[in-house]
């Protein structure tokens, strides 16, 4: 006796119809009939054979784990899982990662440092009287020549006027010396703002390929932590695996149990399988993994995600 015949006998003993089972499991009647006939090729994919049989057995009051172990050799899902995971690993190996050279990321900081050094050098030259001394030295010989050629004494009133002019020139020179300090402070503030903007982490989600019910994505993130959050608006079967094939989630996700959250910081790839795609929301660091608009909402969907840490 196969697993399909076993489920059918249990259903008839409990005097239940396929429609009754459909109402409890939300699995379409044609898939329930295919399970009883062991026509697994009629299923949406071998990946879902195990999930649908577990739901069917639970409604009939059977132990899903014991039933799956007893009829393990009759089910095709073992081979399908190995093929699916090999596809994920192959996609990961074939993905060409591009990283920006380190020199380009340091270039803005180098330019800012050079500008700061230049401003400090100008301020130091002003404070040392580098620019004012040149003018004084150039004017001194002229006065000396005039004094040697014509020894003329200026009237007292004219000497006072010249003294006041010199004081005014010194005040203007001191004001000009203070202006670069204000410029230096504004440059330092803008530099700190630019550095803060450059250091903000970012996460992007890109759809690379979509074919029928399988969709491949790439997640690029510079954040130190990556958080996965999955929310369902109704009862929805959900399976999540990491790149090593280990289960992260394998159960029905309901609105009451939502969201399912877990850290994926150390992972390099993920694989999702679920039904009712319009009722499910997948977020990675608050970035939505959006399905294409032309999918069939009545078919289960598969998502493969390649994670790149920057």
TrEMBL record:
Renumbered residue ranges of the record's region Disordered: 137-211
Regions of compositional bias (Polar residues) in chain numbering: 137-147, 202-211
Recorded superkingdom: Bacteria
InterPro entries for the chain: Bact_Cytoskel_RodZ (IPR050400), Cro/C1-type_HTH (IPR001387), Lambda_DNA-bd_dom_sf (IPR010982)
Keywords: Membrane, Transmembrane, Transmembrane helix
Bilayer-crossing regions: 102-126
Composition bias, Acidic residues: 148-201
SUPFAM superfamilies the record matches: lambda repressor-like DNA-binding domains (SSF47413)
Molecular functions per Gene Ontology: DNA binding
Protein name as catalogued: DUF4115 domain-containing protein
Source organism per UniProt: Gracilibacillus halophilus YIM-C55.5
